[in-house]
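Readers of this paper often ask what the protein records in our data store actually look like. Such a record has a labelled line for the sequence and another for the backbone structure tokens. Nothing more is needed to write down the fold, since each code stands for a local backbone conformation. The record that follows is passed on verbatim for readers who wish to inspect the format.
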Amino acid sequence: MRYLDDLGTRTPYSVIGLGTWQFGSWEWGYGERYDSGVARRLVRRAHELGVTLFDTAEMYGFGRSERILGEALDGIDRDRVVIATKIFPVLPIAPVVQQRAVGSARRLGVRRIDLYQVHQPNPLVRDGTTMRGMRALRDIGLIDEVGVSNYSLARWCTAETALGCRVLSNQVHFSLLSREPAEQLVPFAAQTGRVVIAYSPLEQGLLTGRYTVEHRPGNRIRALNPAFLPENLERVAALIGVLRDVADAHDATPSQIALAWVVHHPHVVAIPGASSLEQLEHNAAAADIALSDEEFAALTAAAQAYEPIRGLRALLRWRP
């Protein structure tokens, strides 16, 4: 496992973490067996593989994800993991931020949340009051670091000014097919010692190469995603082909190469989810794949050439 060990945090951030949206969430449809058994084994195995970053949110399963993660981490030295969660910012004024953090800490079974993030920028509530709540939480030791999610660079900097100290991370959609963070957010993180946390780095499985026109996903989340329309699956085939070619050179899988492309960027960590121990192990191994400049460029060029159908055209073609 590879780490970002220059952040000055209590625990280094592993460049591959574990996202837990699927824990306790009906949307993914994994069921009670997954929540009561598989999830715990995933967390334990991730820890054994050197994964330190575990990301959840109060809105995942309406708190169930936090509870499942907290129970799975029971007995593990908390100074050897980074527990990150997020407040759902319906009304992120200072008192609400403080109240929600207490609830998340209780569900997680921790005295300190390592990274407490604002899940979405609120268009009606300024970051001044949100960060006033975060600052109070830091002052009493309930949280260690503050993060944001889905923030532009300008708003990230505004939040940091309001907090009066660093806002360590910005969790954003970042993958071969969602490359916008590489333009401003990643350079800023690299220059200032901050972190970009990449969610959906495999595009909900699109970049694994598992899905084709003949084999479309049945999962609720993926079935509603226009990326899995037959026409888009045909269009992404060229990129999957390049992923396979690079994977063959590294004795790896397309999904590992897609993850390696994300964490090839400086000061970026990825938090893919996992439905099985095998998938988790493959994800973690991607941290040690070093892409050449030529491979990175070839993957980027193939991704740039992919043009999916979107908007109304995609809606008109959608079939459940």
